[in-house]
Amino acid sequence: MESNRKNHELQWTARPTPGGLIVQVSGQVDAHNESDWQRMLDESGVAVPEGSLLVFDCGSLDFMSCGALVALAKQAVDSRQRGVTVRLVITQPSIRRIITECGMDDAVSAHPDLNSALNGHLPP
């Protein structure tokens, strides 16, 4: 699965990994492309089998709106009902701040790098 808008601000690619799926996301997600973000979340959610891991690697994402974060949190809840664990890689301090300011720290499992997301470890 891959975004079909190469020149659009939001791009993604997905690749299987043992035990799940990694979705590499780059660009920005804001009000004008939240429908693309939602499509990516939906496609990723159905592509990963029950009982596996779904990692959204947003390390190359420059901006994430609160609406995009809410959609991600909903995807995490829906996925948990199917036994799928959703984790997020975030490297931008501004996006981590949005997660905190939107009160989503408990809803979104944010990790500083792909390795910690895959292994479920947060740094001390």
From TrEMBL:
PROSITE patterns: STAS. It comes from the Bacteria. CDD domains: STAS_anti-anti-sigma_factors. GO terms for molecular function: anti-sigma factor antagonist activity. SUPFAM superfamilies: SpoIIaa-like. Gene3D superfamilies: STAS domain (3.30.750.24). Residues 10-121 form the STAS domain. Pfam families: STAS. Belongs to the anti-sigma-factor antagonist family. This is Anti-sigma factor antagonist. It comes from Mycolicibacterium porcinum.
